[in-house]
Backbone:
């Protein structure tokens, strides 16, 4: 127990977060390019991935605004997984300062993105509904966070236990819902036997 307590103090001092990704099978790499491949996921994340045509129907060339950057989703130790996320839990540790907090938006990505989306809508004479404008602006703000070199996103005010990653992540450990845990290499060796 004392060792575990010292490990926890060490992680806090280094600013490391314990993060967990859920899937239907053990993964060697958690790849953001595979986002939304779980058919059980329904939510705002799915809506944000949809693009919007800026040019009128049938006009060529088509101009489609699709800003949402690929992301993998993680929960911290207080996250209560949604039904259908999968029986395999992939654990990683990441520094807390590599996630851009959307709720603080210290670099003001969202207001900049919102104005740009409105300007593009006006430029192409496309009237977008308010929800589409907000979704496109959120997606563009996320893209800016990625372009500025952040590993991923957090939203400490509204979803404090959820994080995303723009980059591939190799899990430190994989566990199954039945509680069996092991290092990824050992686990995959056993799975391949």
Residues:
């Amino acid at each position: 127990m004392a060792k575990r307590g010292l490990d926890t103090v060490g992680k806090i001092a280094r600013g490391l977060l314990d993060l967990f990704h859920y899937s239907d099978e053990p993964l060697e790499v958690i790849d953001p390019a595979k986002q939304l491949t779980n058919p059980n996921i329904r939510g705002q994340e799915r809506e944000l991935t949809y693009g919007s045509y800026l040019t009128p129907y049938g006009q060529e060339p088509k101009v489609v605004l699709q800003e949402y950057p690929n992301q993998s989703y993680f929960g911290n130790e207080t996250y209560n997984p949604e039904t259908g996320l999968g029986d395999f839990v992939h654990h990683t540790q990441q520094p807390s300062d590599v996630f851009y907090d959307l709720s603080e938006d210290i670099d003001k990505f969202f207001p900049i993105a919102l104005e740009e989306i409105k300007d593009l809508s006006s430029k192409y004479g496309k009237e977008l509904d308010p929800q589409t404008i907000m979704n496109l602006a959120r997606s563009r703000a996320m893209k800016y966070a990625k372009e500025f070199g952040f590993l991923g996103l957090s939203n400490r005010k509204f979803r404090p236990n959820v994080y995303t990653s723009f980059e591939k992540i190799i899990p430190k450990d994989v566990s199954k819902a039945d509680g069996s845990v092991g290092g990824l290499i050992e686990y995959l060796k056993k799975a391949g036997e």
Summary: The chain is about 30% helix and 25% strand. Strands lie at 16-23, 52-53, 64-65, 72-75, 88-95, 99-101, 152-155, 159-165, 173-176, 181-183. Residues 40 and 83 are 8 Å apart (CA to CA).
